Amino acid sequence: PNSPEMLAEMLEKQKEELDKKLEIADEVKKEAKKIFEEIVEAQDARMLRGTRGIKLLYEDILRSKQYNAFGAPLASVEIMGKTFWKNIDIKTQDKKIKINLIFNESLRRHGENIEKEVKNINIKYIDHGFDPLTQTIVYAGKVAIIVWTEKPIITLINDKHAYESYNAFFNLLWKIAKS
Fold it and tell me: What whole-number distance in Å separates Cα of residue 148 and Cα of residue 129?
């Protein structure tokens, strides 16, 4: 028969092996966490073009709870048509999406008409002396920059840092803008 101390020595050896395995598991866990965080904070950008690109952008926007936008020329109504914008207004109201817009002062009459019809929109105005050709939309961790030409060009950026930066800029403009 083995001495009683052998049992304690055997268990102590198993404990040491288990401690080493736990140490290795902690290191693997730390590395896996770093990789996971990189994947979660993935960033990308893509280009969309034309009225089809605008429609794809708004399909994505309609999955968010809120969006902020600044810029936008009246030409956007001409390019997409009044029916498109009416449908967007209906869908955002149905989904209770909160919308904050900053328009150029020259669009005040147009904006006031929108606010009469759409209850989930807040619009403020800035007079910067020219009608912008671009619009920036900030939503759900993304930034969309639209160049409203005859065939619109959209740059869609999916990046937490860009989103935070543009959102902070929007909030600064919102404080300056007038109701």
Answer: 18
Q: Strand 153-158 relative to strand 44-49: parallel, antiparallel, unpaired?
A: antiparallel
Model-wide pTM > 0.70: yes
CB-count burial class (<10 Å; 0-12, 13-18, 19+) for 158: middle
Residues 130, 128: Cα–Cα separation, whole Å: 6
Residues 153 and 47 sit within 8 Å (Cβ to Cβ): yes
Largest CA-CA distance found in the chain, in angstroms, rounded: 99
Q: State the DSSP H helix or E strand holding residue 25, giving kind and residue range, or none if neither.
A: helix 4-40
Mean pLDDT confidence for 140-166? 95
Neighbours of 65 (CB within 10 A): 10
3-state secondary structure of 24: helix
Q: Which of 79, 81, 74, 149 is nearest to 104 (CA)?
A: 74
> In the prediction, which pLDDT does 39 show?
63
87: nearest Cα among 65, 61, 109 = 61
- Note whether 46 and 142 are within 8 A (CB): no
CA-to-CA dists, residue 1 to 7, 12, 82, angstroms? 12, 20, 94
Q: Side chain identity at 114, as an amino acid letter? A: I
- Rounded CA-CA distance 122/1 in Å is 86
Asked if 101 and 69 touch (Cβ cutoff 8 Å), the reply is yes
